[in-house]
Amino acid sequence: MSLLSIGKTKDTTDVMLYHPVNGEALLNDDGSQMSITIHGPYSKRYKQISHEQQNRRLAKAQRSGGKMNLTAEELEASSLEILIKCVVDWNVTLTKGVEEFSEEKVRSTFDTLPWVREQVDAAFGDTRAFLEQ
User: Fold this and answer.
1) CB-based burial label for 51 (10 Å; 0-12, 13-18, 19+)
2) How far apart are CA 130 and CA 124, in angstroms?
3) ∠ CA(54), CA(59), CA(61), 5° rounding?
4) Given this model, what pLDDT does residue 65 score?
5) Spatial separation of the C-alpha atoms in residues 36 and 122, rounded to whole Å
6) Has residue 7 got a pLDDT over 80?
7) Which pLDDT tens digit goes with each residue over 72-90?
8) pTM of the entire predicted model
9) CA–CA distance, 34 with 56 (Å, rounded to integer)
10) Which residue(s) pair with 87 in the sheet?
11) Is 14 helix (H, G, I), strand (E, B) or coil?
12) How far apart are CA 104 and CA 91, in angstroms?
């Protein structure tokens, strides 16, 4: 066995959604399982978003004489922003029929249904979800 034969990374994965109480798969009206496609921590998209945030923080620190003053709220907002921007597609019914994907709908869904955000965040942090089989 060699390290190079194990776990080549992939940019995206599909996060299947499950009922937060009973664990059953959530289905759209057409019978397909609800899913959210996300870029993972190995992707160029994630790195770009992360670097943009870090560059903004560094610029802020430089303007304030090198002091890095971040609040818990800013850190939480930053984490949420990365997660939202890493969502690139979905197959989700919010009211009737599969909803058209948009960043604002993702933001609204994560705000209204925090358990959806938790499921996506859990997948985002799961290395195995971004490795080729």
Assistant:
1) exposed
2) 8
3) 95
4) 74
5) 12
6) no
7) 898 888 999 999 999 999 9
8) 0.86
9) 35
10) 38
11) strand
12) 15
